[in-house]
Amino acid sequence: MKPGITCVVDNAVKSSSHLWGEHGLAFWIATDSGPVLLDTGQSGTVLLHNLDELHLDAAELKALVLSHGHYDHTGGLPALVGRLTPGLPLYANSDLLQERFSQSTGQRRSIGLSVNADWLSEHFTVHLDDAPQQILPGVWTTGVITERPYPAGYVPRQEIRAGEGYASDPYRDDLSLVVESNSGLVVLCGCCHAGLLNTIEHVQRVFQQSIVAVAGGTHLISADAATLQFVAQKLSGWGGLQRLYLNHCSGQEAYVTLRQALGGAIVRPCPAGAVLEWATAA
Ligand SMILES: [Fe+2]
Ligand SMILES: [Fe+2]
After folding, report:
1. Distance from residue 103's CA to the centre of ligand 1 (Å)
2. 281 pLDDT more than 90
C-alpha cells in the first residue's frame, strides 16, 4: 500500500468533488502496515459517503484512533462499526470516556461520546492510555499533552462532570497522531485543544525528531490577533516546518495570519479530499 494521508471528513470539501462536509474531522493514514483512521466525523453519514467517494475500504483498517471524546470526532462510530473488523484495535487517551458538556447555548448539553465503555468493548479492542501508544510501525499517539505553557484551545463553558457538579474541561483526552515519514515527523491534530505550540513542543520532546508537517484542526478559531501573531512568530522560528495544513476548527483568521507569516508554500487548506502530497514521497 502506498503511504499517504487523506482528509476524509472536514467542515469544507475539495472543490469539484462529490464529497460531503460537516463540522467534524477524520483522516485516513495509509502505511506499509495497513491503514489507520483518525476520528470519525460527526454524523457517520458523511464519513461513509466520503469513504465510498474516495474508494477507501474501512474493512482494511488496522486500527482506529480517537483524538478526543467530542461528538464531532466520535459521532461516526455507530455508523462505521458495521464496516470494521470486529475487535479492531481502538486507541485513545485514558480520559476519553469522561462525560463532556457545553453551556454555550445557556443550557448544559452533552458534547461527548454517544456510546459508552461497554459498547466500545463490544466492538473494539480498546487501548486507553495517557502515555504515547504505538499504533503501527511509525504511527504513534502523543499521549496526554502534559506541558501547556503556550496558548491552548480551551472553549469557555465546556465542562466535565466532577463529583456532584461540573468543572472546566482540562481536555486531558486531547491527543494528536505522530506519523514518521522519510523526511521527518508528521503531526495530525483532531481539535488540538491542548494547543498547537504545546503539541508541537510535546512531540519534539517525546520523539526527539524534527516535525516537517502539521495537519488538522488547531483550535485557533477563537484566538485573538495578538495570540495568532505569537503563534505565527513561534512557528516561523521552527525552521523545519515544511507544511501546515489547516482545517476544521482552525478558523479563517488563523489561516490568513499564518499564511501571511509563513507563506503560501507552507500554509495550505485541508478540506475533505485533500491528499497530503509530501507524505506520499516515502
Ligand atoms: Fe472538533
Ligand atoms: Fe473538540
Report:
1. 16
2. no
